Amino acid sequence: MRSLAFALALSLCTFFLHTDVSSAQGPLKVVGTGDGLEMLQEIGAGFVENRPDINLEIPPSIGSGGGIAAVSSGTERLGRVARPLKDSEVEYGLVYLPIAKIPSAIFTHPSTGIDALTSEELVKLYSGEIVNWSELGGADLRVRLVRREDADSTLQVLKSSMPGWADMEFSPRSKTALTTQEAISSAREVEGAIAFGPYSKPLEDGLSVLKIDGHHPTDPGYPSSVTLALIYKEGTLDEEMKAFIDYAQSGQAHTLISNYGGVPVGR
Q1: Which of 250, 245, 239, 205 is nearest to 96 (CA)?
Q2: How far apart are CA 146 and CA 73, in angstroms?
Q3: Are 247 and 253 in contact, with CB atoms under 8 Å apart?
Q4: Rounded to 10 degrees, what is the CA torsion of 21, 91, 57, 28?
Q5: Cβ 53 vs Cβ 21: under 8 Å
Q6: CA of 124: how far to CAs of 37, 132, 133, in Å?
Q7: In the 8-state DSSP scheme, what is residue 234?
Q8: Which residue has the higher pLDDT, 5 or 236?
Q9: Cα dihedral angle (27, 250, 42, 35), rounded to 10 degrees?
Q10: Are 25-101+226-264 and 103-212 the same fold in CATH?
Q11: Could you say which DSSP state residue 6 is in?
Q12: Topology of 103-212 in CATH?
């Protein structure tokens, strides 16, 4: 009996000594905002090509707040956010690493017949003063407004930078999308729809990304952008996390960010 117990203990010891600690932790998930999701998934794909030994996942959006909560509680190791951390969140010991600036785009269903607006016209649309695209020289089609919740990072940037948005009251006829992907889907599927969210080149496929005051989101004169950042809890940085962070700040990742219409940040 003693020899059997000893053999079992020895087997368990050997198992734990040879088990990869990272696999015991489960996959490395980068959770949080939907802003820049496709771009970050592309960065993730490039990273996995270089490090196939690391099980990386870039799951759908749970919002910046969701990512902060998951990392703060220790549920996940890495998060992604599209807004600066609040003082109360910094007190959790979170480390904030910006990797890209992403322009805040205004986009419509192609049925509108519109490819450019002035910032004044944009305010009139979202406040409900303009209700038909024909008033702007577009199709005789009702304007379908898609907005985001008040805490959304893109909305906060638009309020702070887009002329007329700071004090604008949204039309009560607007629909609130809870995620970036929902806003994009609404604009793709609903005739007459207009929405906003982080810019990426895939938006140009099937949507009209509007020039505002003569500037496309990728132009230097375009006023609005959000900063996409990675977050982790101080003292938790392991080899897998460091490897992904290093790649996200590398020249390869910078090329991917630029290809998606973003502006790389960092080294």
Answers
A1: 245
A2: 33
A3: yes
A4: -10
A5: no
A6: 30, 11, 12
A7: T
A8: 236
A9: 90
A10: yes
A11: H
A12: D-Maltodextrin-Binding Protein; domain 2 (3.40.190)
Quick: pLDDT tens for 109-152.
Answer: 999 999 999 999 999 999 999 999 999 999 999 999 999 999 88
* C-alpha to C-alpha distance for 16 and 181, rounded to whole angstroms: 42
Q: Which ranges constitute the DSSP H helices of the chain?
A: 2-18, 21-25, 37-50, 63-73, 87-90, 119-127, 153-161, 180-189, 239-248, 251-259
112 secondary structure, DSSP code: G
Mean pLDDT of 148-160: 90
C-beta atoms surrounding 122 within 10 Å = 23
Least confident segment among 2-6, 30-34, 167-171, 214-218: 2-6
What share of the chain in percent tops pLDDT 70? 90
CA distances from 99 to 46, 66, 173, 244, 253 (A): 15, 19, 36, 12, 9
pLDDT in tens, 46-88: 999 999 999 999 999 998 999 999 999 999 999 999 989 999 8
For the chain, first and last CA: distance in Å? 61
Q: Which CATH architecture has domain 25-101+226-264?
A: 3-Layer(aba) Sandwich (3.40)
Name beta bridge partners: 78. Answer: 30
- The whole-model pTM stands at 0.71
Show me where the domains of the chain are located: 25-101+226-264, 103-212
Q: Which residues are bridge partners to 81 per DSSP?
A: 229
Scanning the structure block, which residue is given the tokens 């010991």? 93
